[in-house]
User: Fold these one by one.
Assistant:
Number 1:
Amino acid sequence: MKYRLKIEVKLKPGHSDPEGETTARLLKELGYRVDALNVSKVYSVVIEAESREEAITKANEMCRRLLANPTKDDYVIVGEEER
């Protein structure tokens, strides 16, 4: 079966987010009342797996091996069967 995975990788609390800080500052300069802004990456992956659990397990492995830095990143995985 095919599964569509949405993997969001974001900085752990306490880590600086220069891109988010710059974007927030620029939005304020444009007149928006922005209190805070954080940047994250979202990966959309379609993968072959026997079950949803296997697809999630593979996604966790992808994050540990490449997509996320465990020192500074957290990640969330959402998976559903591809239709």
Number 2:
Amino acid sequence: MMNIHVGNLSPDTTEEDLMKLFSQFGKVKSVKIVKYPSSLSKGYGFIDMPASAEAQEAIQNLKAKDLRGKTISVGEARSRN
């Protein structure tokens, strides 16, 4: 299992957009865009992919990809510990 951080998201990017984008590289377990209490996007989110090899392929292929007019950043999520 690998948790992927996606940043610099456009405010109108949806979880469905990210699911579709990352599913091109393999199975996606979950997608979560982090939001303010007002439901506005904070501009980043997380994707869980069960297979590390597929997750690495997604990271490599989606770095600096344009999504809804913004260049997204993609990398392995870091633990807060």
